[in-house]
Amino acid sequence: MIIMTLLGIFSGFLFVPLNALLQWRSPPDRRGAIISFANALVYAGMLMGSVLALVLAWPGPMRG
User: Secondary structure of the chain in the HEC alphabet?
Assistant: First the structure.
């Protein structure tokens, strides 16, 4: 539980400045599209990580 809490805190230290930089550097007329695309990439990465964890944790005939 402590490791998960620390992981969440320190990932916030990474993603909050990145999102602020993304908002600051994007042109005002395209800002919403850029932020939504970045969020879509983040959620796709979370989904792929969850699926990969499920595949790696799945017991099967390949394990000896």
Answer: CHHHHHHHHHHHHHHHHHHHHHHHHCCCCCHHHHHHHHHHHHHHHHHHHHHHHHHHHCCCCCCC
